[in-house]
Amino acid sequence: MSKKLYEIGDMPPLGEVPEQMHAWLIRAERFGQPTAAFQKEVVTTPSIADDEVLVYVMAAGINYNNVWAGMGVPVNVIGARNKAGETEDFHIGGSDASGIVYAVGKDVTNVKVGDEVVMHCGIYDRSCPWVKKGGDPMYSPSFKIWGYETNWGSFAQFTKVQAQQCMPKPKHMNWEEAAAYTLVAATAWRMLHGWESSSVKKGDVALIWGGAGGLGSMAIQIAKAVGATSVAIVSGEDKFDYCTKLGAKGCINRNDFDHWGMLPHWKDSAGYAKWLKGVRGFGAKIWEVLGEKRAPNIVFEHPGETTIPTSIFVCETGGMVVVCAGTTGYNATVDLRYLWMRQKRLQGSHFANTVQCNEMNELALSGQLDPCMSRAFTYEELPIAHQLMADNKHPHGNMSVLVGAAEFGLGASGKPAVAMVHPTLPKGDVHTSPAPYPMSTPLPGIAEGEPITIADDGSKVRDLMHRGIISCAPDETVGAVAKIMVGNEIHAVVVMDAQGAAVGVVSQTDMVLARQGRTPDQARSLRASEVMTPGCATCDADMLLSDAVSLMTGRRMHRLVVTEKGQPVGVISMTDVVRKIIGD
């Protein structure tokens, strides 16, 4: 061996595995924001098992799971592995990669030293009884996500993977492009093709949430490849051209509608009527895009809490809503009548198995799946890429970072069998991320039936609100905020920045949760910004009181911050509404 350690970009001779390697490590003592959590270190190059492969990483994909790993939430991945018996006190993340095989275990037959590969992130124990009898590995208790639930991910010069994770690298892609697509594309593939009779097929209509995002951009292309028609939901008209070039029939701007969120309480007839009017309008917009009155046979879901009620409503009878995430929240509400009476399917989906990953990769190999890479970073910028994602300031599409590749644009050695357009979003584009009717009444559909009337006495929020805001600054300690609460006999304090904008709320619940696992002194010394619930549920002073009530019940909360001209000026609570109803 010529060297014990090679510098980043200095590729060892093929098949030579140095004793040590450079890597970006996360350690428990620095859990927090990505720019602090990720630190460069030198570690021993991992050894491989009989069914494993050691890959020299040329580029690695950036995914949200290692923002979570760096923060230590919702799981301390290092602690979880230590509890299971693994000894490393660090985490090397990275769940997407392209690279070159440098070593193989004795049982490996699908790849050899020198092969250019991409890796999918699903691993499992080949000796698991469920797997050995032919069960889907995704249902095995041993299944894990490589580079998040396991160590030795792709943010290092070498990564160790199971041989079944390795797939041929598309020759027409450079290293950074090839590292960007596998996780999201495989997830989208299983969602659309993994559910037997409900899987997408030629002639179907697919409604794709987040069409310009990493998952959505893959779903549009997968639907197109099978001959389905997709309608993309996006956050602005600036993304229409991008999605249509990928293959969408057309797009809908979700900001043209305001009925999002959990269903209003079943006793809130005014709130449900308003929601129903909004969701019918959304369904009619789908018809407009399609040019015919057809409902989606399959709805590709991942926002979750704010969109599930709408997705289930507009889905075709006998169709499927398939969901892989809850980016807006996990407490989604369902009007169960639509599931049983119209026999719709609400299907959960998580990543993909080995067969499905390779089926997806065939599309990429043939040139029918563009990686939709929005930005590639240098090795030194790896923490910055994750910080952008944590701050929701990352560009739409998929991102990657160079590791072993010496510069951008290397690695392409051929042309795709199918020529494709490589759409791009406008420069600077950033993220902006009801009571059931009585059973004796026919279920309402999208088409307008009887006119909907909403009973309301015209009261405004300003008629009942309490003026004045009890607030704190983001850098005030939890101990100081607690004194504000106790002194004012209140349950929550609004967090306001230096410009007077409400940026969050610290509630008594937030404080109780912050105390868990800490001493009282540690909890008291935390900053409000560290424990607050980000964002602030608001309503305008001129909003109808009935609308404010629907907003509170829809979000399962008891109070709203009241604004005038966008500035917080007071509070309205359910207690105020009760006083109006029953009198003082």
UniProtKB/TrEMBL annotation:
Pfam families, per the entry: ADH_N, ADH_zinc_N, CBS
Subunit structure, as described in the record: Homotetramer.
UniProt cross-references to PANTHER family, sorted A to Z: QUINONE OXIDOREDUCTASE
Protein name: Crotonyl-CoA reductase
Family annotation (InterPro entries): ADH-like_C, ADH-like_N, CBS_dom, CBS_dom_sf, Crot_CoA_red, ER, GroES-like_sf, NAD(P)-bd_dom_sf
Provenance organism: Accumulibacter regalis
GO cellular component: cytoplasm
Localization in the cell: Cytoplasm
Keyword Nucleus belongs to the record: no
Domain CBS intervals: 465-522, 532-584
Alphabetic keyword roster: Acetylation, CBS domain, Cytoplasm, NADP, Oxidoreductase, RNA-binding
SUPFAM superfamilies for this protein: CBS-domain pair (SSF54631), GroES-like (SSF50129), NAD(P)-binding Rossmann-fold domains (SSF51735)
One Gene Ontology term of the molecular function aspect: zinc ion binding
